[in-house]
Amino acid sequence: MQAQRILSLKPPQIIRLFGWWNVKPYLSWDDVQCSPDMTFRSLRAIGLTSIQLHILQPDGSAWVKNGGVTIDDVHEMILWPVHPCKDLKAGLSDIITKQWTSTQMKQLGLSLPELTLLGMDPGLMCMFGYPLSSWINLGLDQTYVDNMDDDQIRKVFKISRTQVLHALPVHLSGKPLGCYSLVRPVN
Which distant-in-sequence residues (6+ apart) come within 8 Å of 132 by Cβ? Predict the structure, then answer.
C-alpha cells in the first residue's frame, strides 16, 4: 500500500479549504478527491504551487480523472505533463481560442502534424497569426508546403512559395545538411 502524500497548510489556506470549524493542518489527495470544489485552479488560487501539487499527486492522469484539471490549467502542469488533446480531449477549436504562442504549443507537445490530424488546414492556420518561423518550429516541412496552393501560402505566410521553401531546413536523404561534410576530399 502506498503512503498517503500530504501537504502542510498555512492558517489562511486551512480556513479557505476547510472553513473555521474543521481545522485540519494538512491537505491529502483523498481530500481533493472527496471535494469537487478542490480543483487544480482553486488550489493554486489559495497559494499552493505547482510543485506542491505535484508532490501531492504526481500522476497527471489522476488529476484529469478526478475532473480537477481543465485546458486552462495545462501551462501550469508542465511537471506532469498533461496534454491538451490526448488527456483533456481538446479539439482544434479549443486550441485556436486559447491563442497560445507557438512556444507554448510546443511546450505542451502540440505540433503541426498533430493539429493537422485534428482538422487543421491552411485556412485555419491564418487564425493563429504565426510567422513562418513559428510554423517551422511546430513541424512545417516541404511536404506540407507542397500540398498548399500559392494563394494559401501567401495568405498564411505573407510571402511566396519560393521564399517559404528557402526558409525551411534543408534535408538530404532525410538527414539535416549539417550531417554531411561539405569539404572536398584532397587527392
Answer: 140, 157, 159, 164, 167
Which of 179, 96, 168 minimizes the C-alpha distance to 139?
168
- Report field, pTM of the whole predicted structure over 0.85: no
CA 48, CA 51: separation in Å to the nearest integer?
Answer: 8
Structure confidence by residue, pLDDT tens digits, 154-172: 999 999 999 999 999 875 4
142 contacts: CB under 8 Å, gap ≥ 6: 165, 168, 171
pLDDT in tens, 86-101: 999 999 999 999 999 9
* Cα separation, 91 vs 95, whole angstroms: 7
For residues 118 and 85, the answer to whether their CB atoms sit within 8 Å is yes
Buried-exposed string 117-147: b where 16+ CB fall within 10 A, e elsewhere: eeebebebbeebebebebbbbbebeeebbee
The closest alpha carbon to 45, from 65, 10, 16, 9, belongs to 16
Grid coordinates belonging to 129 = 497569426
What residue has cell string 494563394? Answer: 151
The gap between the terminal CA atoms of the chain, to the nearest Å, is 71
The grid cell for 138 is: 511546430
Per-residue cell: 46: 489559495
Residue 95, Cα to own-chain centre: how many angstroms? 10
Residue 67's nearest CA partner among 43, 98, 49, 88 is 88
